[in-house]
Design goal:
The protein has 395 residues and is α/β, with parallel strands linked by helices. It has helices at residues 12-24, 46-50, 64-69, 130-137, 159-169, 191-203, 299-313, 381-390; strands at 2-8, 30-34, 72-76, 80-84, 89-92, 97-105, 109-111, 152-155, 175-178, 207-209, 214-220, 223-228, 233-236, 238-241, 245-247, 263-264, 276-278, 283-287, 292-295, 325-330, 333-339, 348-355, 358-365, 368-375. Strands 1, 2, 3, 4, 5, 6 and 17 form a 7-stranded mixed β-sheet that branches. Helix 1 (12-24) packs parallel to helix 7 (299-313). Bound molecules: flavin-adenine dinucleotide.
């Protein structure tokens, strides 16, 4: 078997690349290998599946007949075990060797597991895949605010922790969130914005326990509790964990492709090996605006990088230089991130502003805006994106 273009990973980055290749080249062969057993689906719609607002079918991004009509071979349930750039070949879990002309690594990440003594006795709820969404959706009590009164605990302070907390609260479970740092979303939000987020969560009965870590899980199958670093014992009936992603790069360990946390790529999304590209959550590249390597875990970034990588693989010209944005809602409160909100370091400062009901934080590098976050309605979103693109000063 040989394909002109082989894509590992059937997420939005991989599928966007496949489409972009086909747009530029109507005749080449394209295959996408994805190790999940499902049709290609949208992760950003999974929270709506958990809430029962959309059925699984609505999350699908394309069907086999649609891919076939574009002569794109999509093979679900196939894991690539290794890549040999010298041979221009990959090896699958069934022993097959498949050759490629150009290769895209778009393998994203998997949840980082909570590793503490006793955790092996717990059915931990993670939230990354359609299978995880099914489990959360099928928890009893949806739409019953009186609920069972059974306590839930969520570990983590980011957007997945918020999604898990909402899933538990919507099932009438008194919920606690345990996080290491000073508050929800760490320094990604300004102090006033973070207070607003935490107030909205508190109004829904969520208790936020800061500066704490889990030491161990104690108890039997019917009465379990977390022992926290502050000495508190926290009983739970449901435990959700949202503490970030491990990127899927281990299968590249012997390939010679330069890896850091992710696959290192240049502004053309090209790796250190000839004809090998990477895009999406798994790609790690220097953001010229901040002069730092970044891994970006949002939908728009994965889609745009996939498109650019696909176009370049098929002979296009250009570089990836987008400023991407990402929005979620926390119990109805919108939160938006623009650009490199997580960066710290030399020349980086943070400045907070309030505009009506919106709490904004700008991240500046040597006085120029490199990113922003907003809690509340973001009327100036387009303007702020332009400021970040231009590296404008904050006036
Ligand atoms: C619940 C949830 C909600 C989200 N909500 C938002 C949101 O509102 N806004 C936003 O911007 N972002 C959101 N995100 C993040 C966004 O979905 C991701 O950034 C994006 O989906 C990443 O796409 P990707 O194609 O890079 O990787 P993925 O979607 O992770 O796809 C990679 C695929 O490759 C497969 N794979 C891995 N290794 C192999 C291998 N060796 N062989 C074959 N296949 C392999 C993986 O199993 C996976 O199917 C959300 C994420 C989650 C989990």
């Amino acid at each position: 078997m040989h394909y002109d273009h082989l894509i590992i990973g059937g997420g939005i980055a991989g599928m966007s690349a496949a489409q972009a290749i086909r747009v530029r080249d109507g005749h080449c062969s394209i295959a996408v290998f994805g190790n999940e057993p499902h049709p290609v689906y949208s992760r950003v719609l999974l929270p709506h599946v958990v809430r029962g607002r959309v059925g699984e079918g609505k999350t699908y991004l394309g069907t086999q007949p649609e891919f076939a009509a574009r002569h794109i071979t999509y093979l679900p349930g196939r894991t690539v075990l290794s890549v040999d750039p010298a041979l221009h070949a990959v090896h699958l879990d069934d022993g097959t060797e498949v050759g490629y002309g150009k290769l895209l690594i778009a393998t994203g990440g998997r949840v980082r597991a909570l590793q503490v003594p006793g955790i092996e006795n717990v059915d931990v709820r993670y939230f990354q895949t359609l299978d995880d969404a099914r489990v959360l959706r099928d928890l009893p009590g949806m739409g019953n605010p009186a609920g069972s009164g059974a306590p839930a605990v969520v570990i983590g302070g980011g957007f997945i922790a918020v999604e898990l907390a909402m899933a538990f609260v919507e099932r009438g479970m008194p919920t606690s969130v345990v996080l290491r740092g000073d508050g929800m979303f760490g320094n990604l939000l300004g102090p006033a914005g973070r207070d607003r987020v935490e107030a909205v969560m508190a109004a829904k009965g969520v208790r936020i326990i800061k500066h704490a870590e889990v030491r161990e899980v104690v108890g039997g199958p019917h009465a379990q509790a977390l022992v926290l670093s502050n000495g508190e014992q926290l009983p739970f009936a449901e435990l959700g964990v949202g503490i970030g992603l491990e990127l899927n790069v281990e299968f590249l360990a012997q390939s010679g492709i330069t890896l850091s946390r992710g696959v290192l790529v240049d502004e053309r999304l090209h790796s250190s090996m000839p004809d090998v590209y990477a895009a999406g959550d798994v790609a790690e590249m220097v953001d010229a605006r901040v002069g730092q390597r970044r891994i970006v875990g949002n939908w728009q970034n994965a889609m745009f990088q996939g498109r650019v990588a696909g176009d370049l693989m098929a002979g296009g010209e250009g570089v990836f230089d987008a400023v991407t944005t990402y929005s979620i809602t926390c119990f109805g409160l919108p939160i938006t991130f623009v650009g490199a909100v997580e960066v710290t370091g030399d020349g980086i400062t943070r400045e907070s502003r309030q505009s009506g009901e919106a709490f904004l934080q700008f991240v500046l590098k040597d006085g120029r805006v490199v990113s922003a976050s907003c809690v509340g309605p973001f009327a100036d979103r387009a303007k702020v994106v332009e400021m970040v693109k231009a590296g404008a000063p904050l006036i």
